Amino acid sequence: MSILILGLLLFLGGHSVRIFAEDWRKARIARMGEKNWKTAYSVVSLIGFVLIIWGYGIARREPVVLWSPPAWAPHLAGLLTLAAFILFPAAHAPGNHFKAIFRHPMTLAVVLWALAHLLANGTLNALVLFGAFLVWAVLDFAAALRRDRVEGVVYPKGTLSRDVMPVVAGVVIWVAFAFFLHGWLIGVKPFG
Q1: What is the full DSSP assignment across 39-82?
Q2: Nearest CA to 127 among 47, 49, 60?
Q3: Is this structure's pTM higher than 0.70?
Q4: CA atoms within 13 A on the CB side of 184
Q5: pLDDT value at position 185?
Q6: Strands, DSSP E only, in the chain?
């Protein structure tokens, strides 16, 4: 479990600098240059990500069961992850309603993804992993909305034609992942 926690500290810690230390981040970027900052940030994130995968895999070998998820949990998790898979590309597609309404759809996607996995899993390692991502995403979402208010950021109204790409991309990737890739990569088939 210690490798998982170290990975979470590195990955989410790096991703939390903007939430908790924006002035420090700006000073580092000014001192190092944006390219060097992004390189260092990427290296720390990648190391953290690898440690998360490795640590979670180790922790799954001898799971500590905290609760048994209800029979409906995987179905609700499927719906929540479908929404997350739509919101994630919406963050990168300009002029869509998702971005206009939610402002930070990628962070909201992480909230839904983490919540879905907390509902469908009842082990200590799942609680640590998905609980950490859920707490981080809620804090990040609140910080991003606060930054928007301070900076006076206004998101343009979305158009229906710009909604199509994130919906189609999200559904296609979700189907591929839920029915094929999740079992192959993670070792768990969400739908049997």
Answers
A1: HHHHHHHHHHHHHHHHHHHHHHHS--B--PPPTTHHHHHHHHHH
A2: 60
A3: yes
A4: 6
A5: 86
A6: none
What residues form DSSP beta bridges with 65?
123
pLDDT at 9: 96
Q: How many CB atoms neighbour CB 41 within 10 A? A: 16
CA distance 132 to 34: 28
Burial of 94 (0-12, 13-18, 19+ CB in 10 A): exposed
Check: CB of residue 105 under 8 Å from CB of residue 98: yes
The span from the CA of 81 to the CA of 187, in Å, is 17
The answer for residues whose C-beta is within 8 angstroms of residue 110's C-beta and 6 or more apart is: 84, 133, 134, 136, 137, 140
